[in-house]
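ok so for the tutorial part 2 we go from a plain amino acid sequence to predicted structure tokens. step 1 is just haveing the sequence, like this:
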Amino acid sequence: MKRIGKLVCSLFVCLLTGFVGSFFTRDSVTTWYSDLSRPSFTPPDWAFGVVWPILYIMMGISAFLVWNRGIDKREVKAALGVFVVQLVLNGVWTPIFFGLHMIALALVEIVLLWAAILTTIHVFWRISKPAAFLLLPYILWVSFAVILNAALWFLNG
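step 2 — the prediction. this is what the tokens look like for a chain of 157 residues:
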């Protein structure tokens, strides 16, 4: 039962990050964002609503796998600390981009997020290889998002 509680907690925290971010995208997607010049490789708006929940679930499971190795272990605490840093950076990008409409600052922030995800994968790898593997689609999607953010800045900056 304790494991199920950890899993639910991990999933909840990750999904909550996305849910909070959705408050910033709701109005901007149909107004400000739709008026931006976008590169030809921009996914349709609905794709983000499909991809992100899947990624948040995978992130939650990944964190659970590491947490389940023993929170009393120093390397687990440190790895989860790195995970929290990347999760905060994940949550901050949306208000910067969609809330403040600051494309250049969002680009700087998403590069920091990318580095934090890579660091998380590295520290998770030492504790749980499945946990690290679960984050690979996330780093790939954020890599694409960095390119998209840069293109949006180039076209609209």
